[in-house]
Specification:
This protein is α/β, with parallel strands linked by helices. It has a single domain (3-196), classed as Vaccinia Virus protein VP39 (Rossmann fold, 3-Layer(aba) Sandwich). Helices cover 32% and strands 28% of the residues. The chain contains 5 helices and 7 strands, in the order H-E-E-H-E-E-H-E-H-H-E-E. A 7-stranded mixed sheet has the order 3-2-1-4-5-7-6, with helices on both faces. Strand 2 (50-57), helix 2 and strand 3 (76-81) form a beta-alpha-beta unit. The structure holds S-adenosylmethionine (SAM).
Length: 197
């Protein structure tokens, strides 16, 4: 098991796995997963609904992914090293874009979301799970205080991103379907607002 998977296990047990199980099977058609990491979502794709799956990450754990993809059957899969801020795919390539626990780390969130909008088909959807700045105080301010140190320890991860608001501001209609650990982790689906296409 990858070290990341071991590190994540307490969070997975505390609700993350439930979120993945609920949301990832909604992916359909041509699917792009951004920031795939060690492939923790792979167990939850519904192979009946997915026609192809491309997994990208700025720092690809190819050995781990290759091993996990062997168990994925004969579905059309690929993995590539790519940064969400500059994706190589033509516009309108995907029916679903999945990202889980990624935008806490992306250097330019708005540019990353612009790229997702670009590669998504007009009628396509996003599936997301992100951790965000808690709304309640003093927890929110505590997360602000911890973020500069946490960023250094955890590869640039911010504890205080307001990703739900940013997604809405960037032109996505969102349906937040579940939250865990109060409102620190949230997951849902979204589509591009008609006015933002
Ligand atoms: C916390 S891990 C999450 C991994 C996996 N999605 C999950 O749910 O367990 C964040 C992942 O996002 C990737 N990542 C961060 N910034 C990225 C970017 N700009 N473009 C592509 N991948 C990125 C990291 O390399 C890392 O694998």
């Amino acid at each position: 098991m990858a070290i990341y998977d071991l590190f994540m296990e307490p969070l997975e047990r505390n609700g993350l796995r439930r979120l993945r199980k609920k949301l990832v099977p909604k992916a359909r058609g041509k699917v792009l997963e951004i920031g795939a990491g060690t492939g923790l979502n792979l167990d939850y794709y519904d192979k009946e609904k997915v026609s192809s799956l491309v997994m990208v990450d700025r720092d690809l754990k190819s050995r781990v992914l290759k091993k996990k993809l062997v168990d994925f059957g004969n579905l059309n899969t690929a993995f590539k090293e790519e940064n969400v801020m500059k994706l190589s795919f033509p516009s309108g390539s995907f029916d679903t874009v999945v990202f889980t626990l990624v935008f806490c780390t992306v250097a330019d969130v708005e540019q990353g979301l612009k790229e997702i909008k670009r590669v998504l088909k007009n009628e396509g959807s996003i599936i997301f799970i992100e951790h965000v700045r808690p709304k309640a105080e003093p927890l929110g301010k505590t997360f602000d205080t911890l973020t500069p140190l946490w960023k250094k320890l955890a590869s640039g991860c911010h504890l205080n991103r307001e990703t739900e608001e940013t997604l809405k501001n960037m032109g996505f209609d969102l349906k937040v379907e579940d939250k865990i650990m109060k409102d620190i982790f949230l997951g849902g689906t979204g589509t591009i607002k008609k006015t933002a296409r």
